[in-house]
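Dear H.,

Thanks for agreeing to be a second pair of eyes. The structure we're designing against is below in token form, covering all 372 positions.
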């Protein structure tokens, strides 16, 4: 297993490099980059967030590298809209390109970017004037909290429920729970989040839960037990939203996997030898059925942790990595875009290796070293 893990870890390097190269090449041909957005704002085709834009014909840019980046798309100073002539002085265009680093060839920018990535130096945000690492670390607690607790609860609920449904296939319990599962699967996550806000977070009915952040003001001064309760209070509704949207698929996957194994010959043989149903289910069927579930764990975890939480973060006013990535894509904040892509891809590849290692824990008969 050790040699296999080393090979997989070494394979991460070219895989990660290839993904970054493909996405970097695609971005070079995508219209509407940061320079184009800045020029459009100067021409009066959009709302300028540069801090101040004045003048006739060429205009005067103040704060393009400070107020604009610090503002992150709106908070960097007084908002102005350039309504002068449509033509721009070439020197201003060149200055904008230099300030964003686009005065260098694409190959040079790529190699400089990858050189920094080797030491996890992702540069600075184009529109926030802050190191990308600081932005990611600032948003990480929200996404980790949502992804960790929702994934944990989904697996704790779905696996026992799926096993029970497989054992009681066709019973009233199976039919009733299938109705609940189908309703959870059919309702979009963002719609369920809105319903929770309306009913329980100060909408039209009750105000039992908060609507913003992971903690209440002044929670840092509370004892540990009270801080934990305050944290759980804030996480209840967002986590429930992700659980409702994610447990249905895993429940049905678990049920189908166990039903497929229950009908196989080795199960009939084990029952004929006098094994109890519990021994057959958890001593023989469990290991084989769980392999399919484990195979989908890395993708499920990454999806919930980063991408699936975007709408939940928006509805519940949680400033996490999902919202950061979305805003960066809209603003064409390339350092943040590529940094989040790099981290997500690296984590996804590592999770695939963890999933392979978990195979051997569930079923020791699996030997990756023997594969060719």
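And this is the sequence the design step returned. I haven't edited it by hand at all.
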């Amino acid at each position: 297993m050790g040699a296999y893990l080393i090979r997989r870890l070494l394979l991460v390097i070219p895989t990660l490099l290839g993904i970054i190269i493909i996405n970097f090449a695609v971005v070079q041909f995508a219209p509407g980059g940061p320079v184009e957005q800045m020029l459009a704002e100067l021409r009066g085709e959009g709302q300028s967030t540069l801090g101040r834009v004045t003048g006739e014909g060429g205009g005067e840019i103040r704060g393009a590298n400070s107020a604009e980046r610090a503002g992150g798309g709106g908070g960097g100073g007084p908002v102005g809209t350039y309504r002068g002539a449509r033509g721009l002085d070439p020197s201003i265009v060149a200055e904008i390109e230099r300030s964003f680093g686009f005065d260098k060839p694409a190959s040079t920018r790529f190699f400089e970017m990858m050189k920094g990535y080797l030491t996890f130096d992702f540069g600075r945000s184009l529109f926030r004037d802050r190191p990308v690492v600081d932005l990611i670390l600032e948003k990480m607690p929200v996404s980790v909290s949502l992804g960790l607790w929702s994934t944990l609860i989904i697996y704790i609920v779905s696996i026992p429920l799926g096993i029970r449904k497989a054992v009681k296939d066709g019973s009233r319990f199976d039919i009733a729970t299938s109705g609940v599962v189908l309703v959870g699967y059919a309702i979009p996550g963002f719609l369920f989040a809105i319903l929770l806000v309306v009913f329980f977070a100060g909408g039209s009915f009750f105000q039992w839960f908060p609507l913003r952040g992971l903690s209440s003001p002044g929670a840092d001064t509370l004892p540990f037990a009270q801080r934990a309760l305050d944290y759980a209070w804030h996480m209840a509704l967002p986590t429930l939203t992700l659980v409702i949207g994610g447990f249905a698929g895993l429940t049905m996957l678990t049920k189908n996997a166990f039903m497929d194994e229950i009908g196989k010959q080795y199960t009939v043989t084990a029952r004929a030898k006098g094994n109890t149903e519990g021994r057959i289910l958890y001593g023989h069927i469990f290991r084989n059925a769980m392999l399919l579930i484990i195979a989908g764990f890395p993708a499920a975890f990454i999806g919930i942790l980063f991408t699936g939480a975007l709408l939940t973060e928006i509805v519940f006013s949680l400033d996490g990595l999902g919202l950061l990535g979305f805003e960066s894509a809209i603003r064409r904040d390339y350092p943040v875009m590529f940094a989040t892509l790099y981290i997500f891809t690296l984590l996804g590849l590592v999770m695939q290796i963890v999933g392979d290692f978990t195979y051997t824990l569930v079923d020791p008969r699996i030997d990756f070293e023997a594969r060719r």
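Two observations from my side: The chain has two domains: 32-103, 132-370. Strands lie at 52-54, 60-62.

Warmly,
E.
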